[in-house]
Amino acid sequence: MASSSGKSISNSSGSSPQQQNSGSDHQRKRRRMESNRESARRSRMRKQKHVDDLVAQITKLKSDNNRIQSSIGFTTQQYMSMEAENSVLRAQMMELSQRLESLNEILDHINNPTACNGVYETEAMEFNPFNLACLNQQHPIMASPDMFQY
Q: How many Å apart are CA 23 and CA 27, to the nearest integer?
């Protein structure tokens, strides 16, 4: 059948409009696939970089953790050593305090002018170590913690 104008419809390229559409669709599909491949490649690269960064971070954190644990161990040893030394020093201080207290009691007894166990200066002429207190009443003796430095 002829068209009403009497002219036939033809395409200069020799292909129908459906074939041209199909060719451009194919080209768009190919470009989209290529773009998707490139996008996937970039995504894999980003993912690999992220994994590499995480591995580097893990390595650094493990190193930091080992350093900190070593420091804690060293500090704990120092603490235990200081604690032991403090215990020894406390015991020595208690012993020296008791000795000082005893010496001060002896000196208080020696320097007490009123009571010399019933012995007065005139009676204490013979040597008696327990009665020396009566002889030293004019020059009192006192002990202080400074006298016991080691």
A: 6
Q: Contact, 110 vs 133, CB < 8 A? A: yes
pTM: 0.46
What does the DSSP assignment read for 41-84?
HHHHHHHHHHHHHHHHHHHHHHHHHHHHHHHHHHHHHHHHHHHH
pLDDT tens per residue, range 120-140: 444 444 455 555 545 555 455
Query: Are 110 and 128 in contact, with CB atoms under 8 Å apart?
Result: no
Say whether pLDDT at 101 is over 80: yes
* CA distance linking residue 78 with residue 66, whole number of Å: 18
Please give the Cα distance from 52 to 47 (Å, whole number).
9
Q: Which residues, at least 6 apart from 107, have a Cβ–Cβ distance to it below 8 Å?
A: 140, 141, 142, 143
Nearest to 129 by CA among 113, 116, 142, 140: 116
